[in-house]
Amino acid sequence: MFISIAYMHYVRIEKEKIKEVAVAYENAQLQLYNALDIEFAKDLQDWDAEIDKQTLEVRFKSPDVLFGLGSTELKPKFKLILDDFFPRYLKVLDNYQEHITEVRIEGHTSTDWTGTTNPDIAYFNNMALSQGRTRAVLQYVYDIKNIATHQQWVKSKFAAVGYSSAHPILDKTGKEDPNRSRRVTFKVVTNAELQIRKIIQE
After folding, report:
1. pLDDT-based confidence at 191, cuts 50/70/90?
2. Predicted local distance difference test score (pLDDT) of residue 82
3. pLDDT tens digits, 161-171
4. Do residues 159 and 87 touch, judged by C-beta distance below 8 A?
5. How far, CA to CA in Å, does 50 sit from each of 47, 70, 79, 138?
6. I need a surface site. Which of 5, 17, 144, 172 has the fewest CB within 10 A?
7. Taking every annotated instance into account, which residue ranges of this chain make up the domain OmpA-like (predicted)?
8. What are the chain's domains?
């Protein structure tokens, strides 16, 4: 009986700890979203970009601005956008470093690939393309002159991830929207899940 009561007390304490972490995560996520929104609200339309409140993604949506067809080379306009965006992005993230596990630069493509109708060939060609593009973006922003003091943090936290066509954007009928599927995102991954795992393991 005593063991049962003690165990129930332990479980309740653990649940309370997890709840505290979850609440802290929600608060930090909301604060970070609000900070990003305040910083970039006036620019999003010009950049054809958006900020996702749930995933903390800054999503650049215009493929014609980002890269040439089948190319990993950044277009001049995208470089200008990144020159403006990235130093300000780091400045916002500075205030939330304790909550950040990783920042992913994610590349996404459509399922199409010129010259083939084989979906497997298209998938792996697009995988190489999306990976090359995110590496190109990361290398470009890393070399921006006025972020030199942040380079060590960028190396420790940023990752370039290419997803090929694994996460397409669908239209209202459930079909792939090829144009919207071609995008680059900057996504903040918080440490809330890690903190919860630590509590469970303890």
Report:
1. confident
2. 98
3. 999 999 999 99
4. no
5. 9, 24, 18, 19
6. 172
7. 54-192
8. 2-201 (3.30.1330.60)
